[in-house]
Amino acid sequence: MDNFKTVLDSVEQGILVCDENGRIEFFNDSYGEFVGKRLEDVKGMHLTELRPGAVAPTVLKTGEPIHALRRKESGQDYFADIYPVKKDGRTVGTVSIVTNVDHANYLSDQLNELRKEEARLKVRMSLTNGTHYTFDSIIGESIVIRNTIELARRIAGFDSNVLLQGESGTGKELFSQAIHNASSRRSAPFVAINCAAISKTLLESELFGYEEGAFTGARKGGKAGLFEAAEGGTIFLDEVSEMDFDLQAKLLRVLQEKKFRRIGGIKEINTNVRVICACNVDIKQYIADKKFRSDLYYRISVAPINVPPLRERRIDIPLLARRFLDSAEIQNKRTYKMTEDAKKLMMSYTWPGNIRELKNAVEYSAMMAKDGIIDTRCLPHSITLRNAAMEDYYEDALLMGDTGGDDLASKEPMNQAGNADVLSSETLAERVSSFEKRQIKHAIRLYGNTTEGKRKAAEALGISLSSLYTKLGKK
């Protein structure tokens, strides 16, 4: 028993044992300090004589434990856990564990810190291979991309919020990772989320987390949000322009006050996170249309960067294509070579999907290549057919005298009409028929002048085989 008492006296929590009549049998030194009594002076005394508000007698009657009961008695603030002691199904006593509120708060704070650290470690582990892009990963020799890289490098050295603007597929997330990896936060987490892909309610809980019971289905114990997970690092909000207007107000407060509350929580959590946002729309027009807060815009665009579209850096297309081919060689275990005609065709294309579309086009061409040679027939139909259309429009422009030196390949077909109705004797229906016939003939040249080739040509053009024959027969 002496050894058992020594063990219990080493515990900071107070421990009290009562018999089946509610009389004190034992307590450790911590409980003695708590009540200001020695065990030998009160042993055998009914507990309510020592602590009038004691609830151990209730546990004796019900046989059910009471957890985390907060009490304030004789100027002491504490938590108590009271458990029934049972033998052969009968309650024969109680054991109480008393924890001072200050000590409980300390434990709670320590637990919260451990949870935060766990969240940070999980993010670091999950993103080990997700933030490997640096500025050296950005391929290009054009002046416009080199200037953009230089600007981003300079901004990376500061801790200001960044707004990356540019069309879809231009590489905004690549720039965001490069900025993070060139900053003083490089060893901390980088967390990315697409604001357009998640509903308002879910996005709020993903960003800021929630407390237990905050809503139906909330995880027991709550959940840390991405702002907590990215502590000390960077959070990337892609397509921030699509964030719900009300949620924008909460994000604004986080940027201003550097603190937030979880959903359903009352405790404010401090945050030290750099925010990088991206959008592919005219965000100022969104502001004019009351779809985006102007005050939030000025908070996130302290350091704005415009990522150029691929059509403004055509000189980089062969370099990018070669890099994607290198990856295809590793994946497919074969070598590839692109013909000059294929390169020229790719250079003349406008790439509305930008680098993402180029990557897909190269991967597709690698699959279509025989013996590793990528010629114009291997390129996606969207590129080859549009090029044929441009050739036809260029021919029409020459006939109409529109050779003023403009880059016709960069113009939309509708802008090539000029004064065709004046210079051409054909009716509109005849000109439409001629145009359709040229497109069909070009598609047949690509797929072959066989029945199967014509069927594929019709499929690529989005018409039936019978319509193809009908249109070819028109004069």
Textual characterization of the structure:
With 475 residues, the protein is of the alpha/beta class. It folds into four domains: 2-100, PAS domain (Beta-Lactamase, 2-Layer Sandwich); 127-306, 3-Layer(aba) Sandwich (Rossmann fold), CATH 3.40.50; 313-376, Helicase, Ruva Protein, domain 3, CATH 1.10.8.60; 383-473, no CATH class. The chain has 21 helices and 14 strands. It has helices at 2-9, 29-35, 39-42, 47-50, 56-62, 101-126, 143-156, 172-181, 200-208, 226-229, 245-257, 283-288, 294-300, 317-332, 340-348, 354-368, 381-400, 420-423, 428-447, 451-461, 465-473; strands at residues 14-19, 24-27, 66-73, 76-87, 90-100, 162-165, 190-194, 234-238, 259-261, 268-270, 274-279, 303-306, 337-338, 373-374. It has a five-stranded antiparallel β-sheet. A hairpin with a 4-residue loop joins strand 1 and strand 2. Helix 14 (317-332) packs across helix 16.
